[in-house]
Amino acid sequence: DQWPLKGEWLEQAHELVQELLQLGHIVPSTSPWNTPIFLIPKKSGKWRLLQDLRAINAVMAPMGALQLGTPNPTMILDSWHLKVIDLKDCFFTIHLHPEDCVPFAFSVPVINNDRPMQWFHWVVLPQGMKNSPTLCQIVVSEALSNICKTYDSIMLYHYMDDILLAVETESSLSQVFDSLVAKLQRYGLQIATEKVQSLPPWRYLGWKLLDSHVYPQSIRLATTVSTLNDLQKLLRTINWLRPLLGITTHELSPLFSLLKGNPEL
């Protein structure tokens, strides 16, 4: 059942649903499935709509992670020319098969109960579905594969929707970048043009890159843990630091075992 949404929260839910309808991310539905939605206010003043898909994830076969970790940019050759690229709303540019849309349905209460509740389901990868990251990786990898074959002398790293392109000469960088953009567009993937980084310092997956040096970005390690969510944030940071410090997965296993609890705590 849908959790209660009242006042401003309900009004915002209706506004966000209308935006998602106009963007083609959801459609009206008669699905027998229904899992709750909730809203998160952002610091910018905007709101974010999320769906609680734990019940769906529990009966879904996991595809597993395709990448065991993040790529290390220290492998890039000295003085090569770089671009850091961020894909825009990657999940929302990848469509579900029509037969797979039905479980991702949700309902929205109407103001003052003056008509039946509205029912919708996602037609693109939903945020919170456990296989969405893996499917995103598959699509992005497929889109970039021919670029590497065409330009075999470049270095091209990607992790989820973050792409790092390194080319020996500046003139070649422009040519490869244009080809990369065209290839991504053929797969329906869009570049967030305002986030493209063409000049140093480049920031990529927690690293700061200069022309001939690579540094980890400043890291804030929150050691006060009072909730399960605090622990998740701490372990996310430690997991990123693990390759730098030589910490093994086995050594972290006692901490990760603590995650087996109620994620709402």
TrEMBL record:
EC? 3.1.26.4
Provide the top EC class. hydrolase
Q: Which UniProt keywords apply?
A: Endonuclease, Hydrolase, Nuclease, Nucleotidyltransferase, RNA-directed DNA polymerase, Transferase
Q: Which Pfam families does this one have?
A: RVT_1, RVT_thumb
Regions that span the bilayer? none
Gene3D superfamilies xrefs: 3.30.70.270, HIV Type 1 Reverse Transcriptase, subunit A, domain 1
Q: What region holds the Reverse transcriptase domain?
A: 21-209
**Domain of life of the organism encoding this protein:** Eukaryota
For this protein, the record's PROSITE patterns field holds:
RT_POL (PS50878)
Q: Which molecular function GO terms apply here?
A: RNA stem-loop binding; RNA-directed DNA polymerase activity; RNA-DNA hybrid ribonuclease activity
Q: Which InterPro entries match?
A: DNA/RNA_pol_sf, Rev_trsase/Diguanyl_cyclase, RT_dom, RVT_thumb
Q: Which family does it belong to?
A: Belongs to the beta type-B retroviral polymerase family. HERV class-II K(HML-2) pol subfamily.
PANTHER family associated with the record = ENDOGENOUS RETROVIRUS GROUP K MEMBER POL PROTEIN, RNA-DIRECTED DNA POLYMERASE-RELATED
- The protein here is known as ribonuclease H
Organism, scientific name: Balearica regulorum gibbericeps
